[in-house]
Every structure is written in C-alpha cells, then in structure tokens.
Specification:
Mean pLDDT: 86
Radius of gyration: 22 Å
Strand content: under 5%
Shape: globular
Distance between the termini: 59 Å
Largest sheet: none
Order of helices and strands: HHHHHHHHHHHHHHHHHHHHHHH
Helix content: over 70%
C-alpha cells in the first residue's frame, strides 16, 4: 500500500502519542503527560492534514474530556465567553458584504480613481485591505474580493504573467500586516491571543498598542514587494474602461444603503467599546442578529448561516483549549523550559530576540498559525512571568513573530488560499521569494518598533 502524507501523519502522530504517554517525563504529572501526548499527536495531525482540521480538533476536545485530563468547563471554556460569538458574527458580516456586492463596489471605485502605474496598484491594494478590514473581519475573504477586481485590471491592461503574479501575491500578502492594525481586522486570531491574558483590550486600545508595529509591518511588506518584484513592462491601463465597469454596477440599492448604515453603527460601537463598556463580542452578536429582523434589518438572511464554518469554530476551540488545559495541568511551564533558556534576561530587547527566534523556529516546523500561537503564547507567558512587564508585551511579540511570518504557503492560511492560477496566480516559489526578506521584517517590527512603543504605552 502506498503511504501518502495523511497515512504518514496518522502513523507518526499515534507513535508520538504512545511514546510521550509511556516514557516517564520529569516535571510532569500524569495528567500533564497525557495532555502533552494528545496535544503533540493533534498538532502532528494538523501539520500533515490527516483529516480536515475540524475532525481532528473535535477528536482532540473529546479525548481531553473522556480521558479525564480536564473537565468540560475548562476544555469548552471559549464558548462561555464572547470570543466565539464575535467570530460567528464576523463571518456573517463578511458574507453579507460579499453577497451584497458592497465590497466589489468599494474596490472598483478606488481602482477606477487611483490606479495609474504599477506602483499605484501595489499601494491601492494595501489601502483596500485596510479599508475593507473595517467591514470584513476576515483576511482571506477580503483578499478574494480584491483579487476578483484585480483580475479585471490585469485583463484590461494586458499585464504580463510575471507582473500578474506580483499583483496576486500582493493581494494576499498585504492581508497579513493589515490584519494586525485593527482588533477586528482578523477576528479569529486577534481575539484568540487576548484569551491568554486577564486584561480587557478595547478596539481603540488595540489600535493604540498595535498601530505603530502594524504600520511598520505594512510599510516594510510594501517596500519588500516594490524592491524585489519590480515590473517587467510598462503599465498601460485604460481608466475609462474601469470607470465604465464601476458605473455598470448601477446605483446603490436600498439594501446596500441599509447594510452601510448597520456596518457604520457596528464600527462605531467597536470603536467606542471602552466608553460604553459593552463587550465587543456580545455587541457584535446582537447587532448581527438584528440585521436579520424585518423592516429595520433584512440585510442578512438564512444563507449567511451557511457561510459560518463550524469546523473553524471547533478548530479555534481546540487551539484555545491547548493553552487553558496546559495551564491547569502544569504543562505550559514544562514547554517553556524546553523552548527557552533557564533564566530570563533582564534586558527586554534580548528577551524579545529570544522569544521571536523561538516562535519563528516552532512556526517553521508546525505551520498552523493558530496551533503555534496556542502552544507558544502560554509557554512565553510562563517564561516571562518573573519579569516586571505587562503580559500583553510577550503576547504581542509572539503574535507578530508567528502571524506576521511565513516562508511557505502553509505557514499562513491568508497566503495559502491564494496559491494557484485559479486564485492568486502565484506559487510556493513566489511566496518564498517574499517570505525570506520578511523574516528580517519580523525582527525589525518587534525589536525596533514594538518593544520601544510598548515600553511607553504598556508600562
């Protein structure tokens, strides 16, 4: 029988589980050892794609409970808070914007007005990602909308294959740093990392803390694309054709206007959460449900529920459970002892260098952003516990190091969904060509921008 990746991953994962479970490990009790064995098996299954991530994650959650490693209230704790319900609301909003055509209208308008050169295409793509991140709290959903419009630009200007690849790569690569700017820019991941600290971070607070590092990452990513992916020919675009295509969309419908009103209200409530005190997750859930009511709503319908990926919710639950259960059984400190040196350096810059390096190395091997964050953030918090710093600082360091870094497509779902001629036009070799310089960017953003800024606003 031919052994494919799925079978190899299954055998390897089960072997790791049996080995970790049977071999005595100093520093871990029986629950901690069983937790570590189940977690490493699950991460291996994720990495090799043994089954769809929802199936693997659901199995992991069931095994944690059935084996007695942790109680259901600990394992399923994300569903008690608001995070999962915000993510549900975010997917419904993204679906409503996509199906209404509002995202297409905005993208087409900006393109018809501001694209004149190849450089302007790159800049406009980043600008669209930032603007749409206020309306669509999901990076790859934004990218698919922008890419659909960009393919029209490519056809209109008769852009060659090489330059078309650069445009496609820019669409999906730009979604990574722009997702860091707003708390709602990438709902699943940005809210996930805040689950590990006992602090409430509002929408404007996130913008204050992450704004400068995110803008640094945006500008550095844009600069890397312009530097390493220079156009091979002169761009000739007929703006009148693009204007005609925008005008062909017709006048904005009443439904689109109502959706804009609801989205404006939602964004205002997000931005003022620290003033009104209503949790951003519950506020979003309530607003989204109200969008389906008659008269005042009717901007979403039953088909939007079908665009909420249950398997992603189960996967996120499993990812959060790794940190929660690991803390309960004492495994987080053990993992930290394996990843980091015995003593924590007093110098914060040196500490940041160690954390970024460790996070990048783990991410290089495991790939999945959420899986790596769920393992590395608790370990990093345990490693830095003795330092007199706000715990948000090591969380943000790890977040940028893992979410902001990729060398191959499987390192980032935001990049992976764009691979192939039918999607973003680019291949793995193109991702690597950009990803290697961006490794340097991660260190610059954390050490030269993030740490000095956080020292001012978080201490």
């Amino acid at each position: 029988m031919k052994v494919n990746n799925r079978m190899l991953g299954l055998m390897l994962g089960v072997s790791i589980f049996l080995g970790m479970w049977q071999i005595p490990i100093n520093g871990l009790n029986s629950d901690g050892q069983l937790f570590l064995a189940l977690t490493l098996m699950t991460v291996t299954f994720w990495a090799f794609g043994v089954a769809q991530m929802g199936f693997v994650s659901g199995l992991y959650l069931a095994l944690l409970i059935v084996s007695g490693v942790a109680t259901p209230d600990v394992v399923m704790s994300p569903w008690v808070g608001s995070t999962m319900y915000f993510i549900i609301g975010a997917y419904i909003i993204a679906s409503a914007v996509k199906h209404s055509g509002l995202g297409d209208r905005l993208a087409m308008y900006v393109i018809s007005k501001y694209i004149t050169t190849f450089k302007s295409i790159i800049v406009v793509i980043f600008a669209l990602q930032i603007m749409l991140s206020l309306l669509i709290p999901n990076s790859w959903a934004r990218s698919l909308i922008i890419m659909a419009i960009m393919k029209q630009v490519i056809d209109n200007a008769k852009i060659g294959t090489r330059d078309a690849v650069t445009i496609g790569l820019t669409v999906f690569a730009s979604s990574v740093p722009t997702s860091m700017l707003f708390l709602t820019g990438e709902s699943a991941i940005n809210l996930l990392i805040l689950e590990y600290v006992e602090q409430s971070v509002g929408w404007l607070q996130w913008l204050l803390y992450m704004g400068p590092p995110a803008m640094g990452a945006i500008l550095l990513t844009m600069g890397a694309i312009l530097l390493f992916f220079k156009p091979t020919s002169q761009l000739q675009i007929d703006r009148q054709i693009m204007t005609d295509k925008f005008n062909a969309l017709g006048k904005m419908t009443f439904k689109e206007k109502k959706l804009i009103a609801w989205l404006t209200l939602t964004i205002v409530i997000w931005m003022t959460d620290s003033w009104h005190g209503i949790d951003i997750g519950w506020a979003t859930l309530g607003l989204v449900m109200a969008m389906g009511l008659p008269v005042i709503g009717d901007v979403i319908d039953v088909k939007q529920w079908g665009d909420v990926p249950v398997h992603v919710l189960i996967f996120l639950t499993a990812a959060i459970a790794i940190g929660r259960v690991g803390l309960v059984v004492g495994a987080n400190e053990f993992i930290a002892s394996l990843m980091f040196p015995m003593s924590v350096p007093e110098n914060v810059i040196l500490m940041g260098l160690i954390v970024v390096s460790a996070a990048v190395v783990v991410h290089m091997f495991l790939g999945s952003v959420i899986a790596v964050l769920s393992m590395v953030i608790p370990a990093t918090l345990a490693f830095t516990a003795s330092l007199d710093i706000n715990p948000l600082i090591p969380v943000f360091i790890t977040y940028i190091a893992v979410f902001g870094h990729y060398v191959l497509p499987f390192h980032s779902i935001s990049i992976l969904v764009g691979v192939g001629e039918e999607n973003g036009l680019f291949e793995s070799k193109d991702v690597m060509r950009l990803g290697l310089p961006l490794l340097v960017m991660v260190f610059i953003v954390v050490l030269a921008i993030g740490l000095p800024w956080w020292h001012v606003v978080l201490n």
